[in-house]
Amino acid sequence: MTIKLDEIDLALLESLVADGRKSFRQISREIRVSAPTVKLHYERLVNIGLIKGVSVDLDFGKLETKTSAKLDQIRHKAVKGHKIKFDKGLLVKIACDYCNGPVHDKPSILKVGNQERFFCCTSCKTLYNEKYRGRIESLSNK
Ligand SMILES: [Zn+2]
Questions:
Q1: What does the alpha-carbon distance between residue 84 and residue 75 come to, in Å, rounded to a whole number?
Q2: What distance in Å separates the CA atoms of residue 48 and residue 50, rounded to the nearest whole number?
Q3: What is the 131 CA–ligand 1 centroid distance (Å)?
Q4: All domains in the chain, ordered by first residue
Q5: In a structure prediction context, what are the per-residue pLDDT tens digits for the chain, which is 142 residues long?
Q6: CA 142 – ligand 1 centroid, Å
Q7: Interior/surface letters 86-122, b for 16+ CB within 10 angstroms, e for the rest
Q8: Distance from the CA of 140 to the center of ligand 1, in angstroms?
Q9: Are 128 and 110 in contact (CB under 8 A)?
Q10: Bridge partners of 111?
Q11: Could you give the angle at the alpha carbon of 65 between the alpha carbons of 59 and 71, nearest 5°?
Q12: CA 4 / ligand 1 centre spacing (Å)
């Protein structure tokens, strides 16, 4: 399964890659969408595992483009610390949160607090649920 990044996601990523310590309000002014919208998009990118930390450490291995040359270019620039221009149509690969295998178009989704976990099959979802039961329950009861 892949999740398509929209224009707001891309603008947000470009802004955060340049400076990961910006506030949602600063980003909101910069990319001209409301601060709550910025926050929603940010949280979604965290949720799907693309944004791995507040310093915006992107997993370029999760990105896909229609042309791999384009992606190599993005990775190359990222490694060298250049300003990256993200293109429309970038896709984020989703891996199973239990077995780390590829998740196909109909994932099993588990809501944990306000986050979603993605699984390749219902048995991975069940196993994850059993393994992390205590944590899942404490998050759900907040
Ligand atoms: Zn799995």
A1: 9
A2: 6
A3: 14
A4: 2-93 (1.10.10.10), 95-142 (no CATH)
A5: 888 899 999 999 999 888 877 888 999 999 999 999 999 999 999 888 888 766 556 777 777 777 777 777 777 777 666 676 777 777 788 889 999 998 887 889 998 877 889 999 999 999 999 998 888 888 776 5
A6: 27
A7: beeebebbbbbbbeeeebeeebbebebeeeebbbbbe
A8: 22
A9: yes
A10: 116
A11: 60
A12: 21
Cα-to-centroid distance, 107 and ligand 1 (Å): 10
For residue 3, how far is its CA from the centre of ligand 1 (angstroms)? 17
Please answer whether residues 31 and 8 qualify as being in contact, where contact means their C-beta atoms are separated by less than 8 angstroms. Answer: yes
Exposed, middle or buried by CB within 10 Å (0-12, 13-18, 19+), for 127? middle
Contact 15, 83 (CB under 8 A): no
Distance 2 CA to ligand 1 centre (A): 15
- Residue type at 139 in one-letter notation: L
